[in-house]
Amino acid sequence: MPSLKPLKSVAHNLCHQFASTFNYWGGDYGINHLARSVRAENQVKIDLLAGASEPALLGEGAHAIDKLAGLLPELLAKEGFDTDLLVGATAIYRFHDPLPVPGGSVAYDCRVEFKTAGGRSYCVELSQLNTP
Q1: Which residue would you say has higher pLDDT here, 25 or 69?
Q2: What is the largest CA-CA distance in the chain?
Q3: Predicted confidence band at 4 (pLDDT cuts at 50, 70, 90)?
Q4: DSSP the chain
Q5: Judging by DSSP bridges, how do beta strands 43-47 and 28-29 pair with one another?
Q6: pTM of the shown model
Q7: 53 pLDDT exceeds 60?
Q8: Which residue, 3, 37, 79, 111, is most buried by CB atoms nearer than 10 A?
């Protein structure tokens, strides 16, 4: 069986790639749509395999969840893995005030965790803090 260490890379890239400038639609960046959609809680837990979130989001927030969940198979394939390898895949984004203005940037923490069918777990925690 090949090494599963590249799963940490997938987790890292999932968090960063989604927040990149390549994820722009509806007049703003995907990460900003997500931040504004969870305004009251400042946090969202995303089941990347099911394409669902807690809290459940509507509009652009739901679209952001779909795009993020759709990114996982692409990143796994780039590392030579099939999605069936995973029995669990979650991302938790915690956003810091203030909320972003359209085109701006938001400060957040992200935790991505994968669980494999073989019982292994991989976790990456990242912060994107905006400081003056």
Answers
A1: 69
A2: 47
A3: confident
A4: ----THHHHHHHHHHHHHTSTT-EETTEEHHHHHHHHTTTTSEEEEETTTTEEES---HHHHHHHHHHHHHHHHHHHHTT--GGGEEEEEEEEEE-SSPPPTT----EEEEEEEEETTS-EEEEEEEE----
A5: unpaired
A6: 0.87
A7: yes
A8: 37
